[in-house]
Amino acid sequence: MNPAVTTVRAACPHDCPDTCAIRVTVQDGRAIKVQGDPDHPPTHGALCTKVSRYPERTYHPQRVLHPLRRSGPKGSGKFERIGWDEALAEIAARLKGIAARDPQAIVPYSYAGTMGLLQGESMDRRFFHRLGASLLDRTICSAAGGDALAATYGGKIGMHLENYAESRLILIWGSNSIASNLHFWTFAQAAKRAGAKLICIDPRKTETADKCHQHIALLPGTDGALALGLMHELIVNDWLDHDYIDRHTEGWPALRERALQWPPERAAEVCGITADEVRGLARDYGNTRPAAIRLNYGMQRVHGGGNAVRLVAILPCLVGAWRHRAGGLLLSSSGWFSVDRAALQRPDLMGSRRPRTINMSTIGDDLLRESSAEFGPKIEALVVYNSNPVAVAPESPKVVKGFAREDLFTVVLEHFLTDTADHADIVLPATTQLEHLDVHTSYGHRYALINEPAIAPLGEARPNTSVFRELAQRMGFDEPCFRDSDEDMARAAFAKDVSFEALREHGWVKLPLPDAPLAEGAFRTPSGKCMIDSPLYGVPDHVPNHESIGSELAKSFPLAMISPPARNFLNSSFVNVQSLRDIEGEPLLEMHEGDALGRGIVDGQMVRVFNDRGEYVCKVRLSERARPGVVNGLGVWWRKFGARGTNVNELTHQRLTDIGRGPSFYDCLVEVQPAAAVAT
Ligand SMILES: Nc1nc2c(c(=O)[nH]1)N[C@H]1C(S)=C(S)[C@@H](COP(=O)(O)OP(=O)(O)OC[C@H]3O[C@@H](n4cnc5c(=O)[nH]c(N)nc54)[C@H](O)[C@@H]3O)O[C@H]1N2
Ligand SMILES: Nc1nc2c(c(=O)[nH]1)N[C@H]1C(S)=C(S)[C@@H](COP(=O)(O)OP(=O)(O)OC[C@H]3O[C@@H](n4cnc5c(=O)[nH]c(N)nc54)[C@H](O)[C@@H]3O)O[C@H]1N2
Ligand SMILES: [Mo]
Fold first, then answer.
1. Which is the closest atom of ligand 2 to the Cα of 298?
2. Percent of the chain with pLDDT over 90
3. Could you give the CA distance from residue 480 to residue 365 in angstroms, rounded to a whole number?
């Protein structure tokens, strides 16, 4: 073997439940190949199409490789090269000036561009805590479902991925697993080969729905009604596990009363499906053992997303599905990990200060607000990393207007000149996962992973940790924690179960958990029971959409639009990787033929999708993937690749979910017309 060739253990950093273990082949200092670790059970040697292109993304000719200062209007993407010293000195000076008046005018904005505990949530948090900056409520993805699950089970806990292979019935609920949770699909397929029935519950006829035995195409935001209809049938047919309910749940009588008001006909009408579909699903779920649910976050991006997750999460308790290791539910497994966030993030550095909290999902409104007693100081500076809010945050007309403010000082740490970086005053080049150390948990399985750096940073790129370490020094923060190395922090990341030595030696560590973790109750609530009646949220109910079909608003905008991920992108990441963009083609709206007919719309033409917030022009595809009354605007494209420089978030709104204050991206009414009929 060529001595210059080595293999390095890495972890996929992306915001995906799979968190794959990767082996990187490095030759003469260059990463030449990434492969799934064949020994890591969830990964089983396979990577998705996107991440198998990770070297193409890393060595992309348009990587930002040195600091940049804006040289044109905001949003123009015009920059000049500057040195690190100059960039950091300027940032420190600007932040010091603002902080002297009120540090809360400075807002960090980050999400899960990398899920790594170090590059995602360590030195950066220490820096902003010490500074006294506004806190950020990171709600953009999973807040409704996450808080709802925690209110019900006491934590983000659920079934183990591998055990789905033994299930006899799997409800794939609000999840396009083949696109966004591929390594779950492998186990679902194994179950299918062994005779299990697979049912997909999704408004869109996804590639996953194609491969299931049955597809229930409910209207967006009606999952709570469907769950109540199922409960009705479980009760009247007595398909309940009374012993499990008595011993391991709290509050069932009140929900039982409510569910009895939801006969299949009522649920079916709300969901836009047939009463027989409700009855059939209840019969399957009430009579098949073991029965498993793979719930995903797709169904909680609507007004009632939190209540819907609570209702669905209660179902496995009602039928005692948890008794078997291949029964139960998985929405997130992240709560199984004991991460020492206090050690990583040091909230104690805030001292006695209690800064205000900005909700990342309403950044559009908040950037446009003036100082007030209620809001606090006007936002004067934003430091963005691991996120591309100009493309991904709801209601982009307002987000863009906010980012375009001349009096806003914006720093963006990025790999590429994204829509957000285009609005920066200073862009700092960030390392990719191949270039830095990190440690990872997962929200889809129970293995902690290490990511060893495989190659030296390209150009002048630096890890997020190192940028905040250096900024701390320039701000005069002299607490010893600002001198911790990445390895120091990696060693402190886990409170128990996972040692850094074991990670280093094996690449990943399996958490020591019982195989059927909730078979005997043992929920992580104070009583150890599943909380059907929650002290915080009461007894769950169906909560209709903010913008629902049948409302007054629907007279002007009669179509419901959802905007789920495109298979070959990861939110807005990878949109600039040519080989993947070639597969996706161009921004698309899927529409049912029946909806196109009366609108004079033909397949493949450009259409104008609009509501009272904005408009988005893209190509229409008449397709069975869209159900009548619902259009699917796929993927989060970069605005600058859109026909008129916009993407689907031009249409979404900033109203929040019932639980968790999350965005309701899939709760959005629109109208569609041929673009040709519109003056440009
Ligand atoms: N390829 C790829 N993989 C990804 C991502 C990506 O962008 N691309 N995104 C990652 C991220 S950020 C996350 S959070 C995870 C999970 O990602 P999610 O965004 O939850 O993705 P999906 O699992 O595809 O779930 C979306 C599915 O929910 C459906 N849906 C929409 N509205 C409703 C509804 O009201 N009810 C029901 N039942 N279904 C509905 C959509 O049609 C879609 O098929 O996946 C990650 N994996
Ligand atoms: N309409 C609509 N909007 C949506 C969604 C939807 O389904 N429909 N999905 C929502 C969901 S679920 C989510 S999670 C959000 C996701 O939104 P974001 O969290 O913004 O995710 P990405 O768009 O992938 O952008 C992540 C950025 O982080 C950068 N990055 C990656 N690693 C690093 C690093 O180590 N350092 C630095 N400095 N930068 C790095 C990447 O280059 C990328 O530009 O979008 C939401 N927006
Ligand atoms: Mo997400």
1. 7
2. 96
3. 38
